Fold this sequence. Notes:
This protein is α/β, with parallel strands linked by helices. It has ten helices and eight strands. The protein has helices at 20-29, 48-60, 82-102, 125-145, 165-175, 186-192, 196-203, 227-236, 253-259, 269-289; strands spanning 4-7, 33-37, 64-68, 106-109, 148-151, 180-185, 207-212, 243-245. An eight-stranded parallel β-barrel has the order 1-2-3-4-5-6-7-8, surrounded by seven helices. α3 (82-102) links the parallel β3 and β4 (106-109). α3 packs parallel to α4.
Amino acid sequence: xxxxxMNLFTWxxxxxxxxxxxxxxxxxxxxxxxxxxxxxxxxxxxxxxKWDRLGQQAAALGLDVQTCSLLPPELTLxxxxxxxxxxxxxxxxxxxxxxxxxxxxxxxGPFFAGFKTFSGKPATADEWAWSAECVNxxxxxxxxxxxxxxxxxxxxxETYLLTCAEDTRRYIEAVDHPYCRAxxxxxxxxxxxxxVATAIRxxxxxxxxxxxxxxxxxxxxxxxxxxxxxxxxxxxxxxxGPIAIEAFGVNxxxxxxxxxxxxxxxxxxxxxxxxxxxxxxxxxxxxxxx
Length: 290
């Protein structure tokens, strides 16, 4: 059985709040792990003690930890400036340190480029090569820490380097490192892929993490994403890795602004987590019994 987790973005963007009650709720609800958003201030030393404390708090409840992150626009690995790219690599290595401190074995996200940085043109061969070289260096460091990188493609409104499974697979093969693998997010796939099942099969040799996210980023099962099709395709490729629910709401405000969430689509994060998990488990059960 796949481990099922919940991304914590609907509660926090910084993990600075007291989340002990939330973690307990998620464990009691039936989740196996939590996906913690990880960030730090560029140019400063990360607070590894905080991440160690959070990881231990989850572990004490029997929750595994995975992490997710992105790269600030000013540190994009697509920059023609080598100093900027080097700063991006340094930042990502710090995110790896935070992940390791929290006990995470997988760090996923679109850190192949700065988030929402655009040139107005398709990615160039130089940008592709710069990014792949930098991520190879980060993967080398991550291997030493026992943290697997999982590259997440985004939709065209959030990046221009990797927007589909075919490009993501080609990118991972260009990075050519055993600690650089693929993640798959149904929200972005719902926008960009011609066929979601085909996209999953394309990533099959490298897939280590899946995010289930509704087309409006609210409660899974209450929108247009065909989760039965997604989970059937994952079963067809014998995917046994972790699966996390990812959603966004009107809080925290800075994250709502970044993800363009302007209307309330669920009563509470707890309700979303509970109903989303119920739906995913129900679909899984139906597929097993068919």
